[in-house]
Design brief:
This protein is of the alpha/beta class. Helices cover 59% and strands 12% of the residues. The chain is built from nine helices and five strands, in the order αβαβααβαβαβααα. A five-stranded parallel sheet has the order 3-2-1-4-5, with helices on both faces. The longest helix has 56 residues, at 3-58. It is elongated.
């Protein structure tokens, strides 16, 4: 057979040999990708599980003695018990001033004073209401402004036990140079029964954990806010 007629046959044979090789390589690449996705999924589930165990360990389970003090006290709204405990801490001299953050814009101090009638006078001298916050992020921003204005370097933080890890994470992000002292509030149900024995409590704990995870991820992505004083110095510094 002439040489010119043999070459196409050889080329076709080479293409047939190359096709299985390319198909096999693609199959191996897909298998590796699927394996990597599976490992990533298993790793994520494991991390969430271990994180949940850490979260449960982090949540206070016992009443905190009212013997802690700071320059200021901040309570995040969400339950009457929180406000009662915070006002009692202020009355006991555990802080110089109290911020109630996340108050409904139409709620006045006289209405909150009814929750603690014994300490009604404190609402006229030593308690500030924050009306702008609508969530925990807003609570932290509102607290930062109040803390910088008052010049405080330490805060007693009053909120529910399950909410405390997320509250501290958000406040630490906004106030990295301020000492935060936790004062968790426990309800009668939390003291009387384990969280998994009640469906509503279990849903609350799991929800708080997932919100905490989202908050931690967001905090590691976004930069911390600068204090107003630091921003003013940078703005007005010569040169």
């Amino acid at each position: 057979m002439p040489d010119g007629e043999a070459k196409p046959a050889d080329g076709a044979s080479g293409a047939k040999r190359a096709a299985p090789v390319r198909t096999g390589a693609l199959a191996r690449a897909v298998a590796i990708m699927h394996h990597g996705i599976l490992l990533g999924f298993v790793g994520a589930v494991l991390a969430l599980g271990l994180g949940f165990l850490w979260f449960l360990h982090r949540v206070p389970t016992e009443e905190t003695p009212a013997d802690r003090s700071a320059e200021g006290i901040v309570v995040l709204t969400g339950g009457a018990l929180r406000i009662n405990d915070a006002v009692e801490l202020l009355a006991a001299g555990r802080g110089r001033r109290l911020l109630i953050t996340g108050v409904n814009p139409i709620t006045h101090s006289s209405e909150l004073a009814r929750l603690t009638p014994r300490y009604r006078a404190l609402f006229g001298c030593c308690i500030d209401l924050g009306h702008t916050a609508q969530n925990t992020i807003g609570n932290a921003v509102e607290t930062r402004r109040w803390t910088r204005t008052r010049g405080f370097h330490s805060l007693l933080v009053v909120t529910s036990a399950y909410h405390m890890p997320r509250a501290i994470a958000e406040l630490s992000h906004e106030l990295p140079d301020v000492a935060l002292i936790e004062f968790p509030v426990l309800t009668e149900r939390q003291r009387a029964e384990p969280w998994w024995s009640n469906g509503a409590t279990a849903r609350l704990v799991i929800s708080e954990y997932l919100k905490f995870v989202v908050a931690v991820v967001r905090i590691h992505v976004l930069p911390a806010h600068e204090g107003e004083g630091e921003m003013a110095r940078r703005c007005c510094a010569p040169g």
